[in-house]
Amino acid sequence: MPIRDKTYDVLVAGGGNAALCAAITARQAGASVILVESAPKAFRGGNSRHTRNLRAMHDKPNAVLTDAYTEDEYWDDLLRVTGGNTDESLARMTIRASSGLFGWMRANGVRFQPSLTGTLNLGRTNAFFLGGGKALVNAYYLTAARLGVEILYDSEVISLNMDNGAVRSIDITWRGFPETLHARCVVASAGGFQANLDWMRQYWGDAVDNFVIRGTPYNRGGVLRNMLGQGVAAIGDPTQCHAVALDARAPKFDGGITTRLDSVPFSVVVNRNGDRFYDEGEDVWPKRYAIWGRLIAQQPEQIAYSICDARAFPLFMPSVFPAIVADTLEELAMKLKLDPAKLRDTIDAFNKAVKPGQVFDGSKLDGNATEGLAPNKTNWARAVDKPPFYGYPLRPGITFTYLGVRVNDKAQVLMDNGKPTGNLFASGEIMAGNILGKGYLAGFGMTIGTVFGRIAGQEAARRARN
C-alpha cells in the first residue's frame, strides 16, 4: 500500500466533469493535485458519462452552433424554468462564462460535432460532444494524467475534517483501506445524493422504490452530508431534483440517456387510472423535459403511459426499448394493463377537443391546442387516430438532487454564518442548487460544472500558493 504523506496543494473530491475541470485548471496553474474518485476506473466520470451537450451563450454563429443565443435570452429561459428560484448574480456569471468555454475544452481534448437539426430545437443553443459524455470524460482524464494529476479510483472521501471554517485533513478509503490525506485546499465536486435511496426516502417515502436513478450509483451524498454536518450553509430544496420521464423498463441505476423518452410532446400521457394530468405541449422539449419525472412521481404508483399513433411515432427519438404496438387502442390498453374502456374514453375526448384546420409543425411551438379539456394541450395537439398505436410505460428518472452547499462567485463554500470557508471550494451538482432552485434547461448542468469547476480550480490553486 503506497504511503501518501505529502501535503497536496489541491484535493478534488469527485470524478465527473466538474471535478476534472477543477483538477486540470488547478494543475495548469501550477498546483499539485490529487483527485479522489469513488467509482472504479471502468465507471469513472459520475453522471457526466451520460451527458451529450453543453448550453452556451454566443453572439453569432460558430463552428458548432447556429445563429445567436444572447445573454438575455439565456437568462429568460432560465428564469422561466426555475420560476425565479435562482441566484441571478451567479446565474448571469455562469451564462457569460459559457461563451468562452469552447477554446479551453478543445485545448484539453474535447471535440464537438456539427450542430443538430430537428425537433430537439438545440442546434442554436447546445454544443454536442463528439462521442458524448464518455468521450469528454476520457479526454479530460487523459489530459489530467498527462499533466501529472494523481488519480485514485475506488476511493471514497469519508470526512473533510474541518476546524474554524477550514479543512485540516481528509479521511478517505482507498480500495477499502482507510487513509488520511492532507491538502492546502479542497474542491468538493462529488455530486448529489440521488443514489442514496434511504436519504431520498426521507423526502419521498416509499415512492422511491418506483424511481429510476438514471445516472451513476456512486453519487450517494457522503461528501455533501459531511459538509452539512459541520456548519456549511445548505441551499436548495431536498425534494427538488432533475427528474425526467424514463422508460419504465430501464435498470434501477446507470441506464443513462438511452432510457429517456422524448415522446411526450407528440403524445397523450395518462396515469395508471387512464387520466391525463398535465399539458404535454407546454413548451419545446429541452425546456420542459425535466419536469416530467416529478409529475410522474406524483401519480398513482409513480407510473404513466405515453400514447401516440402512426403519424406521431416518427417525430421523436425512440427509447432503447421497443414501443408496445397494437392495431387498436383497446388492444394497446390491455398490453399496458390499463382499462381499455377508460383509455378509449380519454383518447376520444382528446380527439374531439382538437381544433380543426390547424397546421402541425413539430419543430416549434405551433399553437395547436385543444379546447374544453382539463388540462388542455397547448401545442402539437393532433388527433390520435391513425393505427397502429404505440405506447411506452414511464417512470420518474432521477438525474441529480438540488440540495447542495452555498457558494460565492469564487466557488468558495459558505458557512452558516455567511462567511466563506478558508480553503473549501465546490463545483458541479453539489452546488448547482445556487442556480437551479427547480426546473432544468437541457445542457445547463454541464455548463455549471464546467464554469464552476474552472473557477474552483483556479481559486484553490491561487489560495494554496498563498
UniProtKB/TrEMBL annotation:
Sequence ranges assigned to domain FAD-dependent oxidoreductase 2 FAD-binding in this UniProt record = 9-434
- Cofactor(s) needed by this chain: FAD
Q: Which UniProt keywords apply?
A: FAD, Flavoprotein, Oxidoreductase
Q: Matching Pfam families, A to Z?
A: FAD_binding_2
A GO MF annotation of the entry reads: oxidoreductase activity
The family database entries (PANTHER family) matched by this protein are listed as: FAD-DEPENDENT OXIDOREDUCTASE 2 FAD BINDING DOMAIN-CONTAINING PROTEIN, FUMARATE REDUCTASE
NCBIfam families per record: CobZ_N-term, PRK08274.1
What is the name attached to this protein's record?
Answer: FAD-binding dehydrogenase
The lineage, from the top, is:
Bacteria, Pseudomonadati, Pseudomonadota, Alphaproteobacteria, Acetobacterales
